[in-house]
Write a structure and sequence with these properties.
binds pyridoxal-5'-phosphate, single chain, about 425 residues, 9-stranded mixed sheet, 8-stranded parallel beta barrel, alpha/beta, about 25% strand
Amino acid sequence: MDKKPFVTKEQLEEIVKQYPTPFHLYDERGIRENARRLREAFSWNKGFKEYFAVKATPNPYILQILKECGCGTDCSSATELMLSDGVGFSGREIMFSSNNTPAGEFKLADSLGAIINLDDITHIESVERELGGIPEVISCRYNPGGLFAISNEIMDNPGDAKYGMTTEQLFQAFRILQEKGAKEFGIHAFLASNTVTNDYYPVLAKILFEVAVRLREETGIPVSFINLSGGIGIAYRPDQEPNDIAAIGEGVKKAYEEVLVPAGMGDVAIYTELGRFMLGPYGCLVSTAIHEKHTYKEYIGLDACAVDLMRPAMYGAYHHITVMGKEDAPWDRKYDVTGSLCENNDKFAVDRMLPEIRIGDLLVIHDTGAHGFAMGYNYNGKLKSAELLLKEDGTVQLIRRAETPRDYFATLDGCGMMEKYL
Ligand SMILES: *Cc1c(COP(=O)(O)O)cnc(C)c1O
């Protein structure tokens, strides 16, 4: 598949007159159309709701768009709860799927009316201690252990993951929660990440549906929602076939009709907590080539670096690059495309075939809408970039300004030595 940016060279040349590179740019139209496709794919399920994983793109303007698309939020920390609250999410629009949860966070989640999803059986006590009881609505995170495979292909290793409860603990947790007054129950699991296959959700759903049926048989507890969490991936590479969300919705429906409906559980709501799938392709990192270097290899240096996008440095992840205006030139140069950190893994691409790049060229690094800006940090004293929104009407809105040295020094409260920068 040919990967094309959602923005043209002419649009970018206008944008950079006002907002210097590097910046992350988001595509409102793409976000809305994709959210609509997801909703349609699960429209067969009456209670369906997507809880957007805030950690993927923690920007209130993005959350606002998703709210208008009918999504809730999935939070893993106090500040993500605050972001949700600030945007106006409340009650059952918020899922709190934390782990190793710091003290006080269950209380904050409960004060907003969020659904609490327990990562561990010992968290029952933590919740009781903080809230003085168990909320009426509660969810438990399941980890069946072992390897997670789809038709013999190993997708991930839940047995090695820190998340969730064993099967035994899950059943025991539900019994305890019921005794302590919980009235409505849900099951959650996240067993594989960034899956590029239409089978992940259907296979996961079948596992969870079967657990739900067993749970009702053995404990009498009827779960009212099943949360398939995140894990639907995107095609970062041009040769990958993107997931077909309609086919995924159909696959889950088939498992639902095979397992839940015959068990008389045809009213269970399906929840999702997608992050990457909701935003990944609808954001890009826009950067300018500022240096070229010819040593043992050919290097192009950008004004962005790994603090703007950590995935290549952290996971060796592939992010497609378009040199704007040179799409049709021969891709006959082999480059390492680098940032300016004093870390040799600060490379957006290694041995990448690209058109010849000149200083001043604008580069679009694709698929940075999720886990892009969000993973940013300040190593080497680098400042975090701006976030811009390309709106449906073609205008651009600054939705987070770039950091300044003052932001970087702001936590040195009262430090006289830095006063002239504060
Ligand atoms: C990270 C995360 C998600 C989102 O994962 P994606 O791969 O971005 O879809 C959802 N739920 C939980 C609990 C997570 O930790």
